[in-house]
Design brief:
By secondary structure, this protein is an all-alpha fold. Helix content is about 30%, strand content about 0%. It folds into 2 domains: about 160 residues, no CATH class; about 90 residues, E3 ubiquitin-protein ligase SopA (Pectate Lyase C-like). Helix 4 runs antiparallel to helix 6.
Length: about 300
């Protein structure tokens, strides 16, 4: 196994962001796409998307949503793509050799969930006070980081599902601790496709893995709701308050709908495709309108 790299002082967040300039279009080749509302075409695993250029960049990146590929705009590898190319395979390109390409794609399927776990563990450690639970989170973060530094053979031999199950139990404990005193309804794993939740009390709710595709969450206060892995594709978040919710990732917001009233955590950005409604400003009481003549 390669020597463990030092992670940056910000908890590794910089390393856990996708850097396409250091990748080779892995996410445009390795996964399979099925024609749907998210992808305009069928694409088998291991075959390059026809929109992928020789420079490993998407040829329709600016128009993905308009061209029927919104699923591409919300995919996040959590930095696994550049790690795979630059670290695990030492800068090699999948185009150079078919055998190497297959190993790279298979390894990416292991490395990507490990990087996602690193992101969640970093978030959990940051919101957990000193004590036994934070020590357990730190240990899991170190162990998961060590696994990502493995050779292709070591990664392919890893039971990533078993490791993810162990870490998820720890993350669930961290979420419960963060919601202490504000425990809401338990909707984890619930299918709520298209549900009208505008009157639901979801502050402090457990929404881990909930399917909220197309759900109406307009104006809802999500307080300290745990949104780990919640599917927010097409969910209507206009006017919703997500400012204090737990484990919300940028890609979840990118998949949803919202507007200028949606309250976001400070570290997340407002997606460019969200509605930018301008609220008219009325003149203050006693103030003359611009076009009114003085007497």
């Amino acid at each position: 196994m390669s020597e463990t790299r030092q992670r940056p002082a910000d908890g590794g967040r910089r390393e856990l962001r996708a850097d396409c300039s250091r990748c080779s279009g892995i996410c445009c080749v390795a996964p399979a796409f099925a024609a749907s509302a998210d992808f305009a075409i069928d694409k088998p695993a291991g075959r390059p998307c026809p929109n992928l250029g020789a420079d490993s960049r998407c040829g329709i990146h600016r128009d993905l949503r308009q061209r029927g590929f919104p699923g591409c705009t919300v995919f996040d590898c959590f930095g696994a793509g550049q790690h795979l190319v630059q670290e695990t395979f030492g800068g090699r390109d999948w185009r150079d050799d078919p055998a190497t390409a297959r190993r790279m794609f298979d390894t990416f399927a292991v490395l990507r969930p490990l990087h996602e776990l690193l992101w969640y563990l970093t978030e959990a450690a940051a919101l957990t006070p000193a004590g036994a639970l934070r020590d357990d989170l730190a240990a899991a973060l170190t162990e998961t980081g060590r696994l990502t530094d493995g050779t292709p053979e070591e990664l392919l031999a890893l039971d990533v599902d078993a490791h993810r199950d162990r870490v998820n139990r720890l993350l669930s404990r961290a979420g419960e601790a963060a919601r202490d005193g504000r425990q809401g309804v338990d909707r984890r794993g619930t299918v709520l496709i298209g549900a009208d939740l505008r009157r639901a009390d979801l502050s402090g709710a457990n929404l881990r893995g909930a399917c909220l595709i197309g759900a109406d969450l307009r104006g809802v206060d999500l307080g300290t709701a745990d949104l780990t892995g919640a599917d927010l594709r097409g969910a209507d978040l206009r006017g919703a308050d997500l400012g204090r919710c737990l484990f919300l990732h940028q890609s979840q917001l990118d998949a949803a709908r919202g507007d200028h009233r949606t309250v976001l955590p400070p570290r997340l950005g407002r997606p460019a495709h969200w509605t930018l409604t301008v609220t008219p400003v009325r003149p203050a009481a006693g103030r003359r309108s611009a076009g009114r003549r003085r007497r």
